[in-house]
Each structure stands twice: as C-alpha cells, then as structure tokens.
Amino acid sequence: MKKKSISLIIGLMSVALLGVVAMQYYFIRETYKQKSILFDEAINTSLAKVAAEIEKSELINNSQIITRANQAKYEAEQKKQRMLAEQLRIQRQIEKLRLQQLDVESVFREEDEKLKAIFPNITYIENWFYETYFRKRQNQRYIDISLVEERIPGTSLAQNFVVVSATHELPRVSAKDDSVRYVVSTIDVSGIVRDYRIATLPPKADAKVAFELMELRSQLELLNKEFLADKRNALAGAENAFDTLAILGGKKVGVVEDIALSILLSNRPLEQRVNQNQVQKLLQEELISRGIYSPFNIEIRDRSRIIYHSPDAETLASSEKSPRYTTALFKGDFGEPTGRLSIYFPNKKRVIADNMSYLILPTLALFAVLIGCFAYTLSIIFKQKKISEMKTDFINNMTHEFKTPVATIMIASESLRDPEIASNEQRVNKLANIIYDENVRLGSHIERVLNIAKLEKENLRIERTDVHVNPLLEGVLDSMQLQLHKASGTIHADLSATKDLVIGDELHLSNVFFNLVDNAIKYSPNAPEILVRSHNSKENIIISISDKGMGMTKEQQEKIFDQFYRIPTGNLHNVKGFGLGLSYVHDIIKRLDGKIQVKSEKDKGTTFEITLPLKSKKSNNS
C-alpha cells in the first residue's frame, strides 16, 4: 500500500473518530442542560410547597391559640358565654375557610411557579380582555404583542417585558370565570414575537369562600361592636379573643380588631413564627420525594438579618459559589413577605453527573472501543506495510540466491559443449560435480521456501516417531564439519543428557539444528566458536547452541522469529539467506510441543535454547 493511501485512510478515520466524539460531547452537554433545568424546577417547587406548609401550620397554631383564649374567656365570664360561643363559632369558620382559601392559593402558586419556570416570556391578562379579544377569532386581529425594554433605575442594565395590548378598543365582554390567564409568547433571537398561546391556571382564590369570609367577618365585627358597647370599654384586661392575642403579641388591650388580626400576626418576630427543625425536615422530605438525595444548606432571613443558617460552616462558606434557590415566606401577609427561605446545593454538578452515569459510562466505553479499534487498525496497516516491504526484500534476495547457482550451471553446461573440454574426462567430472552441487543448492533453497509455504497453509506433514536427540545432534555436527572448516571455526559438543528420547520428526528436527548451527557460523565475523550442549531438566531435554558472534540487540531478538526478517550485518556481505530459517525453526518446535528462547548480547554472542518434552512425559499426559 502506498504511503499516500495510508495517510488518506488515517486522515479519514481520524476525522470520523473526532466527528463521533464531537457529536457525543454535544449530546451529553445538551442532556446536562436539560437535567439542570429539571433539577432547578424540582428545587423551586419543593421550596414553594414547604413555604405553603409553613404558612398553613402557622394558621392552624394561631387558630388553636385563639380557641384556647376564647375557651378561657368562656370559663371566666359566664355572662358572655353566648356571645363568645358565637364568636368562637364564627372564628373557627373563618379559620376553616382561610385554610381552604390557602389550599386554593397554594395550588395556584405551585402551578404559577411551574409555568414561570418553564416559560420565561409570559404576560398576565385580565379575563375581560381574554373574553373580548381572544375568545372571538375575528377580534384577535386587534391584539398587539410586543417586546418592551425598560431600564433598571440606578443601573446601566435593562429588562425586557412582553406587553399585550389592543390596537382597537372594543366593548368589554364580562369575564365568564375567575381563572388566571397568561399569554405565553415565543420570541426569536431578533426580539420579535413569532407565536403565542393562552395558558389558563386555576383561580387565585375561591370566590364563594371569599364571599363567605367577608360575611363572617362582618358578623364578627358586629358582635365585637355590640360587646364593646355593652362593656363601654370599662373593663381592664383582655375583653375578647383578639385582645388576648394582642397581649400575647406585646400589644395594648383593645387595639386589635378582627380585620387587623393578620397584620398583628405578621408583625411578630420571624424566629417566633418559623421552626428551623420543621423547615429542615419538610425540605428533606420534599427533596427525597423528587429523587434528590444530595446534602444541602438552608438560610432563613427576615428583611434585615439572617435568622438561621446550616451549622456546617465550611460548606456554608462555599455556598457563595453554589447554586442558590430562594422563596418568600408568609406570602399571605399584608404588604411585602416577612422572610425568605434560601437553599444551597454545593454538589449540584456531581448530583446531575451521577444521574447521567447511565449515559456517560457507556459513552466512555464506546470511545475506548473506537480508539482501540482505530489503534489496532493502524498497527495492522503498518505491520502489513512492513511485511510487504520484507517480502519485497525477500523476493529480491531469493532472485539473487537462485541466480547464482543457475548462472553457475549454465556456465558449466556451456563448457561441456566445448569439444576440447568434453574430451578431457577429468574436467568433465569436475564440471559435472559443479552442476550437481549447484543443483543440490538450488533444490535446498526451493525446499526451504516450500516448507515455509506449507507451514503457513498448515499443510506441512509432521511425522511423530521416536527420535534420540543426542545421535541426531552428532550427525548434524558431522555434516557441518566441512562448512566449519572453511570458516576456520571449532565446535564443542557437551551432550550430557542421559534421557534424550522424544516424539518428533527426525527430518525437521535435523533441519532445526542445521539452521541454528549454520546461523552460528554465518553470523560470526571471526573464526566461529560454537558450543552445543544437551541436558535434562525434570521431564524435558534442553538443547542449547551458543556462539561468540556478532550478537543481537533486544529489539532484534523480538523480531528474529518473524518471516523474512534478517539481522543487518553492516559491511559484511557474505551472510546469505532468505530470513526464513528461524521462522521455520520456531514453527517446528512449537508443533512438537516445545519452546525456543534466545539470549544474546551485542558483539558478545548468542545462545538459542530449545526445550522438548521427553517421551515419558508426553505419554503420561496422553
């Protein structure tokens, strides 16, 4: 494969991988934003519900106080029994109706906060405006919805408001109900209102209950006036239930009337109206019901100071950087709300990330698989490229190796055609020997190539017969004497293995030993010094062939059993071969259930160590 093709493939795969990573990152980021919005909505809803529960609890407690006070007055003043009983009945009815009204208001506030949390661009409209302009399709053309920018006094900032108005005044149509309606607008990036729809919420209050409350308060006021007229303000101390509450609140007797009850209650200090433990417990229950188990810190403050905060000072110090959620307390009081309840989540990001673990972990696993496949593909490409280059070198080398004996045979054959040479029997015999030797050499080369091809195709037949290793080694060493003599080398044999019977193929084992001894001779720059040993270790025979030749580096040792790999010899050009010998040796030993190891040091020599199982061990295993 050409270098340009490899670069193109790597480039395309890199772009594809980066594209997948970018898409997954975008998807996870958008999912995180959605989770964060849902988290904020759950917190705000929980705060609103807790605030409503606190206010409802206070109403119940105040009702109990009033009931006890009036009961005390009933026991103390028998003459006022009938009037006080009526007062208590009306007061209880009022408190009951107020609780009903508070439930209605709580439902409205929860729906209202949910709507505002989801849709930031909403505008309140009167019901008569809805009936006049929105109800009839032909009147909708007079509706004008626009975005108005209003600067915040004292700052350089501005706020945007959506204003709903009519371009043409029509006769008003009376409201059909007391529902609360908003116009939900869709605004594009240029600030233009593109679309709108009507959102209808339940009423802020129950009109029937409100009317009954007004009637009951009127009745109570009449009773109080009658009571005060009878007493002519002559008695000291608490004269009715409201005076009793005035004393409890630190006020003067006779100041409080029924209409001023809410004002009196709202003027009490906030720490007397809020139970911190109750707030903590309610928040904990609400958050758990919405699947939020993260620790949090709370803060309660009135209009000027902090009433209560979480005791965890270290976490509270980090709350300045934590997301803060706030709601008003006692929204039913006259005027502005008395207090505010705030909650902090130092671990908000971790909570959302934990909720997304089902998405993040598989994504990371997918990335790991993709990157692994990418790296594996690259390694295969480079490995195949290297093998291709080695095969090219092998073909060139094989051509050169085959060319030499062919050329020698051709020259000898042509010489035999010369009548003068043909008449000389001695010269004919010499040329015939040359032709024979070169044919043998050529056949040897072909046989080695064919053996490697058979090994690759798993077609090489391995005989499994009894083979004595020591005699086989001696025979190989004897056959190598002539080659060793030409190289002026020496071989020392120490065949001390007392057990040398293995199950193997005599031909291939002799080829293995021949290759190793031949390499020891070829890769010795000086006169070869070779040591061949055999010894027993447990139920194995170990054969080692050592030389004092050029040696190998660690990098070369890792590659010598690869096909076509040849150790560079620098300026030494007399080392011939195809790079197939050690690959053949490794495969044969492996097929015979043995193993081969190499130990080498550059410029100091090499030792090949072959371990083969003895016949007895093999038989026992079978």
Automatic annotation (TrEMBL):
One of its GO terms (molecular function) is phosphorelay sensor kinase activity. It catalyses: ATP + protein L-histidine = ADP + protein N-phospho-L-histidine. The keyword GTP-binding does not apply. It is found in: Cell membrane. Its EC number is 2.7.13.3. InterPro entries: HATPase_C_sf, HATPase_dom, His_kinase_dom, HisK_dim/P_dom, HisK_dim/P_sf, Sensor_HK_Regulatory, Sig_transdc_His_kin-like_C. It is an enzyme of class 2 (transferase). One of its GO terms (cellular component) is plasma membrane. Keywords: ATP-binding, Cell membrane, Coiled coil, Kinase, Membrane, Nucleotide-binding, Phosphoprotein, Transferase, Transmembrane, Transmembrane helix, Two-component regulatory system. The keyword Membrane applies. This is histidine kinase. It comes from Sphingobacterium yanglingense. The lineage of its organism: Bacteria, Pseudomonadati, Bacteroidota, Sphingobacteriia, Sphingobacteriales.
